[in-house]
Amino acid sequence: MNLNEIRTERQKWMSWKNIAPLREALHSLKDGAWKIELGDTLKISGDCEDEKHIFEVAKLMMPWRKGPFEVCNTFIDTEWKSNIKYNLLRKHFNLKEKKVADIGCNNGYYLFRMQEDAPKLLVGFDPSALYKTQFDFINHFVKSEIVYELLGVEHLEFYEERFDVIFCLGVLYHRSDPVMMLKTLYKGLEKKGEVILDTFYIEGEGEMCLCPESSYSKIPNIYFVPTIAALKNWCLRAGFDSFEVLETSVTDANEQRKTSWIEGQSLEDFLDPNDSSKTVEGYPAPARVYVKLIKDKK
Fold first, then answer.
1. Which domain holds residue 13?
2. How far apart are CA 232 and CA 244, in angstroms?
3. Which of 132, 198, 215, 228 has the maximal Cβ count within 10 Å?
4. How many domains, in total, are found in the chain?
5. What is the C-alpha to C-alpha distance for residues 166 and 102, in angstroms, rounded to an integer?
6. From CA 162, how far away is CA 124, in angstroms rounded?
7. Which CATH number do you get for residue 205?
8. Which residues pair with residue 189 across a beta bridge?
């Protein structure tokens, strides 16, 4: 697989009629001296003379899913309070001097936060022209050395680097062959590398999974929601030597909700209005398990 040919072809996505105006607006932003704070809200302050234009450009790039961000006095109140997930996982990793990938990185919120560990390399994978443009908007101010690739998980095993740590948060349930995807993550790792994975799960002792008929929480491309025991079997079949459950959590309206920075529906619309423990389809409401997988542990 020639990744450079794929990169060249996907760069053309920036000329799409819905993306090109965003790129033009992005290039109209002024340079300046900026102070960056890598907290729960990634805050950018400094030369805010152009802040009305900054707000207008940010609004053009809706919907904003992951964050939050604050640029001058523009608070981008994203659908997800991604700091909640980041803080839940923070104690479970140390990225200093490591090569790190984030699969399905969206606009790069987690990657920006990971800079605090001073990793050797940060690479985001996400085949989305909009999310790449949002990343470029934030990075206009941050000026990080993060590499953003318009590639998917299927390109990972052909990538020029092998990684010490791969984050794969909220992607597995979108794949119709989860074991194949886990094998791809395995191939993307250095020896003794680790994956930090987050996916939906259902309660149960058995090695089984939910297979939604047409959608789960109004999301059509959710294929399998396993028990933790089933997820463990998938990971072992993919070749991993170690499976460690780090955390579990139930998504609530504090973490995911409608804001003025998104379009359409959010969590409250995805749950049964009379019973928040169920989705609108009648399935168990979204719960997540966070696991650490290790390659070649011995």
1. 3-294
2. 9
3. 132
4. 1
5. 6
6. 13
7. 3.40.50.150
8. 163
- Tell me the pTM: 0.97
Distance CA 238, CA 126 (A): 22
- Mean of the per-residue pLDDT values for the chain? 96
The predicted structure's pLDDT at residue 6? 97
Q: Which residues pair with 194 in a beta bridge?
A: 165, 294
Question: Alpha-carbon distance 41 to 24, whole Å?
Answer: 26
Q: Which amino acid is at 292?
A: K
Q: Are strands 121-125 and 163-169 parallel, antiparallel or unpaired?
A: unpaired
| Spatial distance between the Cα atoms of 106 and 103, rounded to a whole number of angstroms | 9
